[in-house]
Amino acid sequence: MFESIHGLLEEHAELQLKLSDPAVHTDQALARKLGRRYAELSSIVEGNSRVQQLSDDLEAAREMASEDPEFAAEVPELEVQLATAQEKLRRLLIPRDPDDARDVILEVKAGEGGDESALFAADLVRMYTRYAESKGWKTEVISSTESDLGGYKDISIAVKGRSNDPAEGVYASLKFEGGVHRVQRVPVTESQGRIHTSAAGVLVLPEVDEPEEVEINQNDLKIDVYRSSGPGGQSVNTTDSAVRITHLPTGIVVAMQNEKSQLQNREAGMRVLRARILAHQQAEIDAANSAQRKSQIRTMDRSERIRTYNFPENRIADHRTGYKAYNLDAVMNGDLEPVIHSAIEMDEQSRLDALGD
């Protein structure tokens, strides 16, 4: 795997020259694309330098070991450090998901369980919002439909990061959150104190940077307008400001009603539609390219049960990675990093195994 480093180092140097050219930055989309690749390669350059430095230090220590006991004592420690650095570099060389550096649109939808499911959807939204705050990310509610008890029947949130480095990207961290999240607890509506099981679905979409990235023919869109409604179905708007957009070639439907004007709802709807079409296109590419090993744990829909939140036992369990901990209260307050890291580690290992096939 390390044989590929030389070409990557050359690409890094070329990108550095391009990014120093002011003309490149007149095209923001191009500058963003080059910047992301440069940030990704910078991690590899630093990792390679670390391996080279430790290799030189270890070689020097071995040469001096027979003459100086202090150098001999350093050899085992340097060997461990070198092995760790090589493993880190090996993981950096795994081909990354091209969408890792992107921001995301996170959709949460109540499932089976009625009001309890909607309340759990709201708990998940709070969990992700707190996690985003801990990472320094910004969140923005694009659309939402509340339930009678204050939960969410469905909600779409934009999560924006602050780094060009794909390893630090929002999508890189959240892409494995897609699927069915199951909750076991006593609902607020339960008078007998019995534990109920319900679920909410999560979908994580990489957000499109520029509208031009995804070509949408206006003739392929069916746009309907209607009056927006609130919890229980009551009308909350006297004008037809809500918008439903159907992309005829894919059958993807997006409905927006949060904004007061039809134009604003249409703009928000197109933003979500572009993200869904991008995800749809990527799924088609993955399906068509049989030579590309897909992640063993990534899902682009809400059909797979990925995690259980057991409140009576204060237990969180991820069914894909085997991760289990008894700090659910902390997780629901945004302490998601260990859970997310278990998914990232499993994905990296599956990609490493694929490279060895």
TrEMBL record:
Subcellular location as annotated: Cytoplasm
Post-translational events: Methylated by PrmC. Methylation increases the termination efficiency of RF1.
Pfam families attached to this UniProt entry: PCRF, RF-1
Residue ranges of domain Prokaryotic-type class I peptide chain release factors in the record: 227-243
Main location as per UniProt: cytoplasm
GO molecular-function term, one example from the UniProt record: translation release factor activity, codon specific
Any single Gene Ontology cellular-component annotation: cytoplasm
Residues with the N5-methylglutamine modification: 234
Record keywords, A-Z: Cytoplasm, Methylation, Protein biosynthesis
InterPro entries tied to this protein: PCRF, Pep_chain_release_fac_I, Pep_chain_release_fac_I_sf, Prokaryotic/Mito_RF, RF-1
Taxonomy, superkingdom: Bacteria
Cited PROSITE patterns: RF_PROK_I
Family to which the UniProt record says this protein belongs: Belongs to the prokaryotic/mitochondrial release factor family.
Described purpose of this protein according to its UniProt entry: Peptide chain release factor 1 directs the termination of translation in response to the peptide chain termination codons UAG and UAA.
Protein name: Peptide chain release factor 1
UniProt source species: Psychromicrobium silvestre
